[in-house]
Amino acid sequence: MVTHLYLGVIVLAVFATTVANADIKFECGKNSVSVTWKISPELVPYAARLFLGNCMPSELQVLPTGAGEAKFNYRFDDCKFKKMMKGKHIIYQNELSYRPQAKSKPAVFVFPIKCIYKRPEGWVPPFLNPGSGVSDGHSGLVFHMALLNEQMTGIAKTNIITLGSFMPIWAAVEQKSHQPLLLLMEECVAATTAELHYGSQVYPLISNKGCLLESVRGSSKFLPRYHSSAIILHLQSFKFGLGEEVYIHCKLVAWDPERLDETKKACHFVKEKASWELLDDPPQSSLCSCCDSTCKSRSKRGVHWASDSLSHNSVVGPLIIVDRSDTKANSTLVGSGSAADVQVQ
């Protein structure tokens, strides 16, 4: 055992002297990545301790000099790649690592691998499914609303949220053969009940026909759209109902994307600019100027379309917001029942 420990120390010391000069190259493909990691002769016998995520090298070539080339050729479906959506991009990220000791021990070297792609026009995330909470609307429209995971790659698997962290609320309307639609969150409140009654205690999140109040109080905002028929509210968790079951109630509106006005909009407050900004067309942010007063329609344009305007009351929950010091909370799954129901107005 003493001998093994001594050899392990030697390996770590040798690697520490060469890691600073690590020669790593990678190329991002359409659905995969190719990585070439040149290693010193001393490390060739330990190439099995090199990893991309949880994958070992797919090929090891020993060069005439005694050095080696460890190659990793894997799809993003393998090796525990993390997929993230950020703005107009899709990001796949992972880590190259050298782990001379057991997996429970930390790696002695880590190198980030990141592939960034522009999101295709009209791309719809794979989590669009009826299990996330559905309501059938008039004219064959189907509405969805759900809590996403932190990476925004799918429906959240837990409804336990740490105070101050973000809970992405996703909503969408399936257009099918209908004319192009713009989905808006006209009003949203948090409540401790799954149904709203007269006198219910609520915490306003969005009011005044699409003004995100939580962007003034905290760091909440609307994320850039991947499609006009969907919207993601990047909502920072709050103290209201702390430790209790909390439900997010929203009035969703399907509207004509060409007819934005002061009553049909999505506005959030940008602290860096100290002003309100219109999500869908920042140059028209003057439509958000009423967010500090009362937003009313100034003209009758769109009245002919109003009869086709569809609104639905939707609810996501129960969500449980806990303080960081609370370590007794147990995660529970958010399913397709009461955890992500949508009620139709």
Automatic annotation (TrEMBL):
Top-rank taxon: Eukaryota
InterPro entries attached to this UniProt entry: ZP-C, ZP-C_dom, ZP-N, ZP_dom
UniProt signal peptide: 1-22
Domain ZP per the UniProt entry, residue ranges: 27-274
GO CC annotation, single: extracellular matrix
Keywords attached to this entry: Disulfide bond, Signal
Pfam families: Zona_pellucida, ZP-N
Coiled-coil portions: none
One GO MF term: acrosin binding
GO terms of biological process kind: binding of sperm to zona pellucida; egg coat formation; positive regulation of acrosome reaction
Gene3D superfamilies documented for this protein: Zona pellucida, ZP-C domain, Zona pellucida, ZP-N domain
Name of the protein this chain belongs to: Zona pellucida sperm-binding protein 3-like
Species of the source: Stegastes partitus (bicolor damselfish)
Encoding gene per record: LOC103360312
